[in-house]
């Protein structure tokens, strides 16, 4: 017979509320369901932790500005410097700063 226990974790109220919103946006009924699934995956050692950032959305003005810079570099109008590794880049920056 399975025995059920309660897991109590003290967390900030604001964190709990934000997590609940996130869980519901992901389709969970409540925060407990999302934590239960996480614990099941943890027990099976079959989960992957991934932190992804939301893409940056530029204003129309900045989109034009950076598109022009990229096009100038691609066309050769603006020269850029390439490095094979970080060490070479740091040495270049040290000499030219």
Describe the protein's architecture and organization:
The chain has 97 residues and is mainly alpha-helical. The protein is built from 4 helices and no strands. The chain folds into 2 domains: 47 residues; 36 residues, no CATH class. The longest helix is centred in the C-terminal third of the chain and has 16 residues. The radius of gyration is 24 Å and the shape is elongated. It comes from Candidatus Shapirobacteria bacterium CG2_30_35_20. This is Damage-inducible protein J.
List keywords for this structure.
2 domains, Damage-inducible protein J, single chain, 55% helix, 4 helices, 97 residues, 0% strand, elongated, mainly alpha
Helix coverage percent? 40-55%
Number of domains: 2
| End-to-end Cα distance | 71 Å
Strand content: under 5%
- Order of SSEs: HHHH
Briefly note the structural class of the backbone: mainly alpha
Q: What is the C-alpha radius of gyration, as a whole number of Å?
A: 24 Å
Number of strands: 0
Main β sheet profile:
none
Number of H/I helices: 4
Q: Which whole number gives the mean pLDDT?
A: 90
Which regions have little confidence, pLDDT < 50, spanning 5+ residues? none
- Which geometry do the CA atoms define? elongated
List the helices and strands and how they pair.
Elements lengths: L12 H13 L5 H14 L15 H16 L10 H10 L2
Organism: Candidatus Shapirobacteria bacterium CG2_30_35_20
Protein name: Damage-inducible protein J
């Amino acid at each position: 017979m399975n025995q059920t226990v309660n897991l109590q974790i003290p967390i900030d109220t604001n964190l709990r509320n934000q997590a609940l919103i996130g869980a519901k946006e992901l389709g969970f009924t409540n925060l407990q369901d999302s934590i239960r699934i996480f614990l099941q995956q943890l027990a099976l050692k079959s989960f992957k932790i991934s932190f992804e950032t939301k893409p940056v959305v530029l204003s129309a003005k900045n989109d034009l500005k950076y598109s022009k810079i990229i096009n100038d570099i691609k066309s050769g109008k603006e020269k850029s410097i390439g490095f094979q590794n970080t060490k070479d880049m740091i040495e270049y920056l040290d000499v030219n700063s």
